[in-house]
Amino acid sequence: MEKPITTLYSKYDTALRYLIVGGLTTGINVVLFIGLTHLAMPWFWANIIAWVLSVLFAFIANKKVVFNSADMTFRTVVKEGASFFTLRGASLLADTAILFIGLTLMHGSPLIVKLIDQVVVIVLNYGFSKLIFA
After folding, report:
1. pTM
2. Which of 58, 87, 96, 105 is the most buried (most CB within 10 A)?
3. What is the DSSP string of 17-85?
4. In 10 A of CB 90, how many CB atoms?
5. CA dihedral sign, ordered 63, 124, 50, 28
6. What is d(CA 45, CA 28) in angstroms, rounded to the nearest whole number?
């Protein structure tokens, strides 16, 4: 007889793994963004650097951990990587717009605006990731 936790994990394992990887990706993004802006880097460039590094992590982690994509041929990795970065680029546009409104127009706290921004980005990225790996 399966235990309730095992049954729940079996049913929602992909979503749970995505949430964990997404949390780590968000953490990487936010820490890099706040660290770079704290070092007086303009928010736009801090966001681009944080995005590139966190999306690189997310690609690898989503491919291997979340969606168990085993095809590691050069052609497949390049194809999936191009799709992943392109679709994440769409969420970068939303990311940048939210930061522009929150930081430049509303003069909000970088940490608060970035955290709000990441909620929107996570929802967008989940849908995009399912299109690529599922």
Report:
1. 0.82
2. 58
3. HHHHHHHHHHHHHHHHHHHHHHTT--HHHHHHHHHHHHHHHHHHHIIIIIS------HHHHHHHHHHHH
4. 12
5. negative
6. 15
